[in-house]
Design a protein that fits this description.
The protein has helices spanning 76-80, 85-90, 95-104, 107-123, 139-155, 178-186, 189-194, 212-224, 241-248, 261-268, 278-283, 292-298, 318-328, 333-340, 342-347, 375-378; strands at residues 21-26, 29-35, 54-57, 59-61, 126-132, 159-167, 200-204, 228-233, 252-255, 273-276, 302-304, 365-368, 385-390, 393-397. By secondary structure, the protein is an alpha/beta fold. Strand 5, helix 5 (139-155) and strand 6 (159-167) form a beta-alpha-beta unit. The mean pLDDT is 97. The chain binds 2H-imidazol-4-ylacetic acid and zinc ion. Zinc ion (ZN) binds at residues 63, 65, 232, 307, 309.
Length: 402
């Protein structure tokens, strides 16, 4: 999948498979790859025999709400009664319920909990992951969340990329005053930049949350302050979030279930990556999924993600998302592998360092308990990882009994 830019449209099906291959790792970096038969000249301190298993780049997860307090299983009865996601939020539940729990949690408790989720992502083959704030909705707690991401990045094997999502909802104390609230969040930009607490700024552009006009103004200020841009766009209602992402040169437009024809055309002609989250559509019980085929067939670059969060997609299993992409988005296995590796890496500003097995790059690779790459989305709902290597070191291994 070697490429210096994301793969767009039909390029997402150009996948090279080396059969009977070997990979040499030196000082955590990929030093050589080729046919096993040609590897005899390599001196090695340690040999890992993959015994015919599939080896791929470590997976890149480009959209998670990793750090939060509490959980929302108490909202299951409302969900089952058919109360929509945005209505639960309007009643002060949903995101706002998680905000209360996150404000009440200590930093140490948040970190311990986020670390558990991160360990689980790693076990599923993720070696680089984006994490958003957005459950503080005040200066102090947003910073507390972002500090957790920064500290975990220093200690945990998974590399983290941090996104400021202070514009995730309007907190109770600012109801009816979204403009004043966004101004508060803009005031955080200098500190976030100075302390390296966020690389990207994101906003939930949706009916009853933030309008397209508010999102444009907020993201323009973020761009001026030097952040990369992301948008929760056209998830539930077709407001024009995808078009806005293109206007602003955003790195990604995420969700896109309700994207317009014009939005598809604009994305296909832009450098903005479409991040699709079919696990969310599944978990919200919707029948209509994002138009992945139209996006790819029009020439857009697509990435995939769990959208891991305590409300609308409660799973760290990115392999399950690969199955949903096959079954519900009609993506081919080749497209799916691009969407969880190279395209996802470019979606979070790591296209130059992660997402590809390439000589000179960090050896972030997964050995799969699977005979070929079609097999992962095919055998669904379980974990296929055999070993996960981060910078050449085994950081996860499947336990077989005992
Ligand atoms: O906590 O519900 N969609 N934000 C926008 C979310 C889902 C996360 C949540
Ligand atoms: Zn999200």
């Amino acid at each position: 999948m070697e490429s210096d830019r994301p793969k767009k449209g039909a390029e997402m099906r150009e996948l090279t498979v080396l059969e009977n291959a070997a990979l040499a790792i030196k000082d955590g970096v990929i030093a050589w790859m080729g046919k096993d038969a040609e590897a005899a000249h390599l001196e090695s301190a340690e040999v890992i025999d993959a015994e015919g298993r599939l080896v791929t780049p470590g997976l890149i997860e480009p959209h998670t709400h990793l750090v939060f307090g509490g959980s929302r299983e108490h909202e299951i009865p409302l969900k089952l009664q058919g109360v929509p996601y945005l209505e639960i939020l309007r009643q002060g539940g949903g995101i706002l319920s998680t905000v209360r729990a996150t404000r009440n949690a200590t930093k140490a408790a948040l970190k311990l909990k986020a670390e558990k989720h991160l360990d689980r992502f790693l076990s599923y083959g993720v070696t680089t992951l984006e994490a958003k704030s957005g459950y503080g909705l005040n200066k102090e707690t947003e910073i507390k969340q972002l500090e957790v991401v920064k500290e975990l990045n220093e200690t945990h094997p998974v590399d983290l990329v941090s996104t400021f999502l202070g514009a995730h909802a309007i907190p109770e104390e600012f109801q009816g005053q979204s403009g004043r609230y966004l101004q508060e969040m803009v005031e955080l930009f200098p500190e976030l930049k100075a302390r390296g607490l966020a690389e990207f700024v994101d906003i939930f552009c949706e009916t009853g949350v933030f309008s397209v006009a508010e999102s444009r103004d907020f993201l323009e200020k973020a761009k001026q302050a030097g952040f990369g841009l992301k948008i929760h766009a056209d998830e539930i209602d077709p407001l024009g979030g995808a078009e806005l992402a293109c206007d602003l040169g955003a790195a990604t437009a995420d969700h896109l279930v309700a994207i317009s024809e014009e939005g598809i055309r604009r994305l296909a002609g832009s450098d903005t990556i479409a991040v699709l989250l079919p696990g969310t559509t599944f978990y919200l019980g919707k029948d209509v999924y994002a138009p992945a085929r139209k996006l790819i067939d029009s020439g857009a670059a697509v990435a995939l993600s769990t959208d891991f969060n305590p409300g609308s997609s409660v799973t760290e299993n990115i392999q399950l998302i690969m199955s949903l992409a096959m079954l519900k988005l009609q993506m081919t296995p080749e497209e799916i592998w691009h969407a969880v590796t190279i395209n996802a890496s470019f979606a979070i500003g790591r296209g130059e360092v992660a997402g590809q097995i390439r000589v000179g790059r960090a050896a972030d690779v997964v050995i799969w308990d699977a005979p070929n790459y079609h097999y992962i989305p095919y055998h669904y709902g379980i974990n296929h990882t055999y070993q996960v290597l981060k910078k050449g070191k085994c950081v996860y291994a499947k336990r077989i009994r005992g």
